[in-house]
Amino acid sequence: MKKSKVVRKIFSLAVTSSLLFSLVTGVTGAGVPKAMAASTEATRFLQLYDQLKDPASGYFSPEGIPYHSVETLMSEAPDYGHMTTSEAYSYWMWLEALYGYYTDDWSKLEEAWDNMETYIIPVNEGDGKEEQPTMSYYNPNSPATYAAEYNQPDKYPSQLSGQYAAGKDPLDAELKATYGNNQTYLMHWLLDVDNWYGYGNLLNPNHTATYVNTFQRGEQESVWEAVPHPSQDDKSFGKAGEGFMSLFTKESNAPAAQWRYTNATDADARAIQAMYWAKEFGYDNEEYLEKAAKMGDYLRYGMYDKYFQQIGSAADGTPAAGTGKDAAHYLLAWYTAWGGGLGSSGSGNWAWRIGASHAHQGYQNVVAAYALSDDDDALVPESPTAATDWSTSLKRMLEFYTWLQSDEGAIAGGATNSYDGAYKAYPSGTSTFYGMAYDDAPVYHDPPSNNWFGMQAWPVERIAELYYILASNGDTSSENFQMAKQIMENWIDWSMDYAFADSRPVTDSEGYYLDEQGNRVLGGNDPEIATVSAPGEFWIPSNLEWQGQPDSWNGFGNFDGNSNLHVVTKNPGQDAGVLGSYIKALTFFAAGTKAENGSYTSLGSEASQLAKDLLDAAWGYNDGVGITTTEPRGDYYRYFTKEIYFPAGWTGTFGQGNTIPGNNTVPSDPAKGGNGVYASYTDVRPDIKNDTSWSYLENKYNTSWNPATQQWENGAPEFTYHRFWSQVDMATAYAEYDRLINGGGGGPVEPTAPKAPTNLKATAGDAEVVLTWSKSSGADDYTVKRAEVSGGPYTEIATVTENAYTDDSVTNDTTYYYVVSASNEVGVSPDSAEVSATPTEAPTPVDGDLIVQYRTNDTNPTDNQIRAQFRVVNNGDEAISLSDVKLRYYYTIDGDKAQEFHCDYAAIGSGNVSGAFVKVNPAVAGADYYIEISFGAGAGTLAPGADSGEIQVRINKSDWTNYSESDDFSYDATKTSYTDWEKVPAYQNGTLVWGLEP
């Protein structure tokens, strides 16, 4: 049972008060405290941080992954609240960067990056699982086969025609040379965190979180029309022999089993942006900064046309294949994607890669581009052309925004290098940008992609950051600065006309703002919006309407505004996440005016005051779990309508066990170009009916929705959502206001002596003790000290630069005590906590004909599951019946609770593998429990020289509390490939025949 909101809120306040006291008194560590007094905004940031990290709030999964939303009944970009996105991960980085700023505790940032690398960057992160198994077969001279995009899902699958030969990929060779392989270090955009769809993680079955995808069928396919499918498709689901691929693309033969991932470029750029600010705040762990730089290296694929066609070459309908960087538009496109085969031997040895032809203004990130191109920055990628590419991209993005800024100040949609998704000739009079065609709603049309105000606040906030960065660095004359400043002044002036704190704007029934005379405000500069007093409320725009197009781009020096491009601002709303981003835009702009001029300009002062007023109003909406408002969801009638297209004759299996499209379908609309049927959300995803909120929605639909009028006649259903990204946007808005406006320790910190190393561990061996500890931020080296009496005096025995040391100058059966300190040019840290170890002579293991090989992908020793993989090998001359064999894995339970055993996979059949928990009494070093693994008769026999194949097991406590595996007898995180391992003993008919016991 969850704590009540009141209890959670009191707990949060208590924790935050303690932390703030530490900040005020400077007792958090050796560093200089960042503030001598905590402002209201700093207090609220830390309170929101506590709410987000409180397990009772429900923002994180058992694997530590941030959910898209605490609530589950939701359909927007993710169609279920307990999905997650790369966007959520990138916001998590931002949250922890600012937490590190206030506390000097950077471990949380590193833990977040580690989790991201484990679960949503599909690489082998050291767990032995190849999640891009055939990428090495990729041919950069033939990246992918062309298939057209269409304006309706009904026109799919699209023929893989190869009508336009793909150009050459100019990045692959240098990425291979730089990193030793070409496995893409980017996030896949969508995870089924709890495996709600039911597909399972094929390439990493020890993970519950599963790579999935939805949108595949053109600009009109909304979340209501998409078919969720696995990103690792071995054809176990979907249509027999075809999987899900035949819904999207058509070829002469049955589609091959394959893996495929899609990256949302804005999310990875935001993660890099967060690491830039962490570095500016004093974070200096090169290991993680280099990972962010590597992500930026691969993110350059977002700069390329989908099929590597030359930019602008298709204006007349005849695209030309690119030969290198002539296929780069240097913007961040909507996505990149890559994939390959899952078949055996030669049939699966292939891979492909695409960029994207459509660039949306909402995805550009000038801060990431700045960080990745600054020669003095630790985030410059290692590839030889990366810094130049990002420098070009930075200017190109600023030009892009200048080109797209309407006469009023809002930013219009974007541009495409593939008109209508098929490289069609541009209509006469189409405005262009470096040869690309203007598109008022790039990528998706249901609803139009540039109508949401969030697509204004997100990217322009980043331009405000760049304006502040450049002004703070004294760069106030460059063309980049002039563009950033002009964009910001125009946008801030426009947006503040439609944003209100403590008052409510007056609108008509269709959401148009009204002036004092009751007339609709349909654009124009400096409109006077009618308002009514509403203390404690905040209101910002929700939607925009667009008219006209920009002038064709001919350079900043020739730009004189867009008198033919206009915006109508509509629908005041209370989107907390967008509010947070908007407040940060106001805040950075205000701080930028002061950095440039020495004091706030008039517009900067107004922006600062509005940011403060909005922050104060927003706090009144904090319900103890986060800042949120009640949302009417008028679109939720679409849960019940038949909209999901399936071609005639296509039938298959969904992961939840149901047949799709099922029998409850309606014929498709021939006018949309297809021949098939439509199914509903619930036909495809029947488990949504088990959601605790479903009965409310269904009753509301039955009693309020009128299909004839298409209206909710008794009110639309209302939901309160706690979206993770929204809460982080609000939390960081408080932090940035405190940092930039209140002067809460603002700017990079002065170097300080490092803090004492933490998590010191000592593992005793035979005539040796292995020491490991966590890195201390800012440390140049570490001094290891030893004593033979607890508490010292200690003798210095080594100085090392890494966070590990093996002491081999010890005598067995003697207890040694260790501490470690860290140092840099400023000074030396206090000693770490003391640990002890007693080396002993290793017993001689039994070495017989039966051998147990072990590996693990569980390189995090403090998570809530123990994962191990085994192979049993028969090196003897006679067959062995596996039913006569038992294995024992010894460990410490770290809090005695009921436990659960799982066999996630076994080549001999997971149903033939069972486990029994046995308590070791009395406990011994490294073990107070073991799991005894047995095999049923169906496991068969091992012939001489044969092995059992892989056996993957996993255990957890019933309450999912963590284990601490570092000192477990049978655990070895370094064994990521199969190795003979005597610490997993084997028994045949009850007799020890392999290994040793603790």
From TrEMBL:
Gene3D superfamilies: 1.50.10.10, Endoglucanase-like, Immunoglobulins. Residues 753-843 form the Fibronectin type-III domain. Residues 846-998 form the CBM3 domain. One of its GO terms (molecular function) is hydrolase activity. InterPro entries: 6-hairpin_glycosidase_sf, 6hp_glycosidase-like_sf, CBM2/CBM3_carb-bd_dom_sf, CBM3, CBM3_sf, FN3_dom, FN3_sf, Glyco_hydro_48F. It holds the Pfam family CBM_3. PROSITE patterns: CBM3, FN3. Keywords: Hydrolase, Signal. Residues 1-30 form the signal peptide. It comes from the Bacteria. This is Glycoside hydrolase family 48 protein. It comes from Paenibacillus haidiansis.
